[in-house]
Amino acid sequence: MTQRVLVLTTAAALMLGAAVPALAQSQGDMTVGLGLHWIEPTNDDSNTAAGPITVDGNLRPTVTFEYFIADNIGVELLASFPFKHDINLGGAGEVGDTKHLPPTLSLQYHFANGSQFTPFVGAGINYTYFFDENGKGALAGSRISLDDSWGVAFHAGIDMAFGDNGALRADVRYIDIDTDAKVDGTNIGSVKIDPWVFGAAYVYKF
Q1: Torsion sign, CA atoms 122, 124, 180, 183
Q2: Domains of the chain: residue spans and CATH
Q3: Rounded to two decimals, what is the model's pTM?
Q4: Do 196 and 40 meet the contact criterion of CB atoms below 8 Å apart?
Q5: For position 17, what pLDDT does the model report?
Q6: 170 neighbors 197 (Cβ within 8 angstroms)
Q7: How far is 66 from 75, CA to CA, in rounded Å?
């Protein structure tokens, strides 16, 4: 009886495993992801001539496109709606705000294992374009500008497949974003935003 139960249990487990969808990634495949991402700046060592500067976090819709150049190896481009950040100066509170676009290109490896869950890691380069800077509070009426930034980016996450072509994704990135800040044309120093980026998305393979 025990042996019979063991055989039936094993067979059921094998059938269940076979029924679990896997999001296979083969050379030539492409995916599009639609999601939401939260940027949380770490504000590392942003001590400027005007004082310590911090930048608040923000949530925005994002889109990714990935092309698989080989089995399990893809090149991904991240794009988003413009993120908006409040800029705070130590002792003076909010002194401005800015918007930015952070397109990021990454080379990624997906650990395909035949299961419903596929983890992945990646690394690449980020370009951050700052625009629409405004002075507020103590800097109301002042002209604030932030230089564009180039930096490395790291990416990790996991896809949970629920069909041959669809998956839910949870991921995290670390992006090196440093910008030189100017007030009325005078350089006051470097602002190191260096954010963690946390997100969730729906990914479709075609």
Answers
A1: negative
A2: 2-205 (2.40.160.20)
A3: 0.83
A4: yes
A5: 42
A6: no
A7: 5
Strands 144-146 and 104-110: unpaired
Contact 176, 195 (CB under 8 A): no
How much of the chain is helix, strand and coil, in % rounded to 5? Answer: 10, 65, 25
Write the pLDDT tens digit of every residue in 171-180: 999 999 999 9
Specify whether the CB–CB gap between 94 and 88 falls below 8 A.
Answer: yes
User: Position 20: which residue type?
Assistant: V
- The residue type found at 152 is V
∠ CA 152-157-44, rounded to 5°: 40
Dist CA 201 CA 45 (whole Å): 32
Measure CA 13 to chain center.
Answer: 36
Average pLDDT of span 12-39: 74
